[in-house]
Amino acid sequence: MRILTFEKIIMSQLSPRLESLSESATLAMSQKSNELKAQGIDIVNLSVGEPDFFTPAHIKEAAKQAVDNNFSFYSPVPGYMPLRQAIAAKLKKENNLDYEPAQILCSNGAKQSVCNVLLALIGAGDEVIIPAPYWVSYAEMVKLAEGTNVIVNTGIEQNFKMTAAQLEAAITPKTKALILCSPSNPTGSVYTKDELKALADVIAKYPNIYVIADEIYEHINYVGSHQSIAQFSEIKDRVVIVNGVSKAYAMTGWRLGWIAAPLWITKACNKLQGQYTSGASSIAQKAAEAAYTGSQECVEDMRKAFERRRNLIYDLFSKIPGLQLNKPEGAFYIFPKCNSFFGKKTPKGDTISSAADLAMYLLTEGHVACVGGASFGAPEYIRMSYATSDENIKKAAERIKAALAALK
Ligand code: PMP
Ligand code: GLU
Questions:
Q1: Partner of 403 for a Cys bridge, out of 112, 142, 178, 366, CB 3.0 to 4.6 A?
Q2: Would the CB of 109 count as within 6 Å of ligand 1?
Q3: Helix, strand counts (H, E) of the chain
Q4: What is the pTM of this model?
Q5: How far is the CA of 28 from the centre of ligand 1 (A)?
Q6: CA 110 to centroid of ligand 1, rounded, Å
């Protein structure tokens, strides 16, 4: 008689869609760290990527007013018109890009925006090119859409940026989309205008390929003004920009992201979203409108703080033997190569065989939460988010240094 474990019985009841789907590693590690904190253990959490700042006061005020003004009804599926107008105005003013409000669709965070676009464009057999290291959810969302991930590996030697030649080599007749994230989670790399142009020149040659440009870290950039791949007119009608308020305005919990896309893609996402979540939260939309139409000083203040922390963490971690670092140019992550520790033993005698083992060791013995690189498609690396105080960064560096030195 075959005895099924409880887990296997549950899996047999679930749809095949869930079988190959992994849990979000970033959220899982953050939860683990919170559980240890709840037990009274002093954990420095460098796992989840979210600004540690409070939402700026004028944005919160707009939300309070929205409550008082009874913005309590369903919103239009793509979002209130004044918000979409504000986003179109932002795209013109900050990015010199022309979009009609009708081309904008707001969702429950940029996460839903990416998923909407993939579900709208990708079907069984379609290939999606994703340069690795990549944000954990892309590859899982492609699986949900029944597409095939085509991963293009980029290492620290090339500053984690895919070249035009690598892109072209990955293209097949089945390629439907490319997902590009700049500034990047998890590496902090930022593509220059010339590098984007080289990628756009390749895309221009293949009229059936679409680009999903995840620009959620647009404002967290330490090397100059943001460059969007949508600026190249030869491919603009095949680019979907994904962005939102989570990172720039410290609004992760409000759940408000958006796309700017060719009208037919926006309409397709509208149809999809209308069947499974409807419009995003009415209150969050009014708050986001205030974010885009109000003073942008808060964005620059937070960017400066992240830059200071980037300098601090880079400086401290550069002094830790065995870690190989690049200097992040944007976002709020550092992504050291840590494979020199693989094969070493912990003081308790356990062998570190992977970045996941190392992350677990750093959590349980060093009391610092990080995320192993495997779920970012980069198993020799480990991700740390420095969206935390200078004091926590210093504490984390000391603890990690000591924990790594104890590996033999
Ligand atoms: N894209 C990237 C690269 C991210 O890091 C995140 C943050 N989780 C998102 C999209 C989604 O952001 P949100 O859903 O909070 O708008
Ligand atoms: N962007 C964040 C991260 O990568 C949030 C967590 C998530 O949505 O995966 O840590």
A1: 366
A2: yes
A3: 14, 12
A4: 0.95
A5: 15
A6: 5
Question: Does ligand 2 lie within 6 Å of residue 110's CB atom?
Answer: no
Q: What is the structure's pLDDT at 2?
A: 56
CB-based burial label for 226 (10 Å; 0-12, 13-18, 19+): middle
Nearest atom within ligand 2 for CA of residue 25: 9
Residue 239: enclosing H or E segment and its boundaries?
A: strand 239-244
CA dihedral angle for residue 155, residue 52, residue 42, residue 186, rounded to 10 degrees: -10
Alpha helices in 69-126 (DSSP H): 81-95, 109-121
Mean pLDDT of all residues in 58-69: 98
Judged by average pLDDT, the poorest of 13-27, 147-161, 173-187, 251-265 is 13-27
Q: Is the pLDDT of residue 9 over 80?
A: no
Extended strands (E) in 4-162: 44-45, 104-107, 127-132, 148-153
Percent of the chain with pLDDT over 90: 90
Place of tokens 């240094």: 401
Q: Is 176 helix (H, G, I), strand (E, B) or coil?
A: strand
- Which ligand lies nearest the alpha carbon of 243? 1
Q: Find out whether the beta carbon of 27 lies less than 6 Å from any atom of ligand 2.
A: yes
Instruction: State if residue 257 touches ligand 1 by the CB under 6 angstroms criterion.
Output: yes
Cα–Cα distance for residue pair 223/237, rounded to 1 Å: 28
Question: What is the pLDDT at residue 369?
Answer: 95
Residue 8 has φ and ψ, to the nearest 5°, of: -70, -35
Interatomic CA distance for residues 215 and 110, integer angstroms: 9
Distance (Å, whole) CA 207 – CA 224: 31
Task: State residue 282's pLDDT score.
Answer: 98
